């Protein structure tokens, strides 16, 4: 193999030397032609200058008749010179020059004389994963170019329901596999089937931000600009009751019979089902928007300084995460093990952080993701861009970290 490589290198060096020699010769020939053309043009320029001087002298010292005849002669001479110049422009030496290198078709034949090269193709490894009595085809988990893990099955959702300037803030999966998405700018919820088709829209009195399920037949929506949380019937989307929050509440999550919500630049508050605040953690951060609870851990994101924070049940910080792959963190959610998914809008990806905050990995890449939701039962991650134009769900492999 080494001898073959040496022979090929020697052959390529010879080819390179020949090409350089050909290029040098062509360059010298064209340079000479250009000099000759310039010389001719300079001679013509001198002749034209002489004609111009003669005409000026005639006008100064000649009679009208002399000027007339002299001018006619000069005009005829100039016309002849114009014809000569036009012919010069048609000469090949006056054309623009560009060097082109042409590869001969026998290169493959030359190389093949050294060695025969073949291609060995292998079939991809396929796993079948049983999910709630449904069998989904899942490709083997592989490391992507930036450390991301490839998901097995994905669904692309319709985007016609969203405008170019829509502001999608949250996702939640309702009963029967329906998915609700909040469009803050257009004051509505967009409802999708799990297959990606739009099922309808629900108008809200204010701009919806946070979404969370309460029970199988109820879900809640935060309306921060209206200072309220509305609880809706999952099947009919009718409002069952409202909670007056007295201030703008943003991110919303329901766990263990309690709402966890973010009051921007004020606190993370814990509300009972009908709105009474049972406790709170003071948080003065102006970007306190998205919050989430898993067991005795509470999470929030800080999108301006690109950090994710974890707290214990007493409100004491357990860990803080920062990485260049996690810029502009927005919505968050966890898997059953407490690993945290983060929508990193400014990094165009969703990452997962280990429950101890020490490890992370890219999960999927999507343009400007802002809203995510993880369905533990189906091991399915939903991710949506900030304007809703990219909305995709992925079935993820187990033990992704």
UniProtKB/TrEMBL annotation:
Residues 34-61 form a coiled coil. Keywords: Coiled coil. GO terms for biological process: proteasome-mediated ubiquitin-dependent protein catabolic process; protein polyubiquitination. The keyword Thylakoid does not apply. The keyword Cytoplasm does not apply. GO terms for molecular function: ubiquitin protein ligase activity. Transmembrane segments: none annotated. InterPro entries: 6-blade_b-propeller_TolB-like (IPR011042), TRIM-NHL_E3_ligases (IPR050952). SUPFAM superfamilies: NHL repeat. It comes from the Eukaryota. This is Uncharacterized protein. The lineage of its organism: Eukaryota, Metazoa, Spiralia, Lophotrochozoa, Mollusca.
């Amino acid at each position: 193999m080494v001898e073959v490589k040496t022979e090929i290198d020697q052959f390529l060096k010879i080819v390179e030397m020949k090409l350089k020699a050909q290029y040098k010769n062509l360059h010298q020939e064209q340079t000479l032609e250009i000099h000759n053309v310039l010389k001719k043009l300079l001679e013509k320029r001198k002749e034209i200058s002489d004609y111009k001087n003669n005409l000026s002298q005639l006008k100064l010292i000649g009679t009208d008749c002399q000027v007339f005849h002299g001018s006619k002669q000069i005009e005829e001479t100039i016309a002849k010179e114009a014809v000569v110049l036009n012919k010069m422009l048609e000469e090949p030496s006056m054309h623009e020059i560009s060097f082109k290198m042409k590869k001969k078709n026998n290169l493959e034949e030359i190389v093949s004389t050294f060695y025969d090269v073949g291609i060995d193709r292998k079939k991809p490894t396929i796993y079948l994963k049983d999910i709630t009595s449904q069998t989904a085809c899942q490709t083997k988990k592989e490391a992507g170019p930036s450390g991301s893990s490839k998901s097995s099955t994905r669904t692309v959702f319709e985007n016609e329901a969203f405008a170019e300037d829509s502001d999608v803030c949250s996702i939640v999966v309702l009963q029967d596999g329906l998915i609700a998405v909040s469009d803050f700018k257009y004051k509505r919820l967009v409802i999708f089937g799990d297959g990606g088709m739009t099922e309808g829209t629900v108008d809200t009195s204010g701009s919806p931000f946070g979404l969370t399920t309460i029970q199988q037949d109820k879900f809640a929506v935060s309306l921060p600009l209206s200072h309220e949380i509305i609880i809706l019937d999952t099947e009919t989307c009718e409002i069952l009751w409202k909670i007056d929050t007295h201030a703008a509440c943003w991110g919303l999550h329901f766990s263990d019979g309690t709402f966890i919500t973010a009051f921007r630049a004020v606190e993370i508050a814990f509300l009972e089902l009908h709105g009474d605040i049972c406790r709170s953690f003071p948080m003065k951060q102006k970007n306190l928007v998205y919050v989430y609870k898993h067991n005795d851990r509470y999470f929030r994101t800080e999108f301006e300084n690109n950090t994710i924070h974890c707290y214990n049940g007493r409100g004491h910080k357990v860990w803080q995460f920062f990485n260049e792959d996690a810029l502009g963190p927005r919505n968050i959610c966890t898997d059953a093990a407490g690993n945290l998914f983060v929508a990193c809008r400014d990094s165009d990806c969703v990452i997962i952080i280990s429950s101890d905050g020490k490890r992370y990995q890219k999960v999927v890449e999507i343009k400007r993701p802002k809203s995510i939701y993880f369905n533990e039962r189906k091991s399915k991650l939903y991710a949506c861009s900030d304007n809703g134009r990219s909305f995709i769900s992925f079935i993820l492999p187990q033990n992704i970290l």
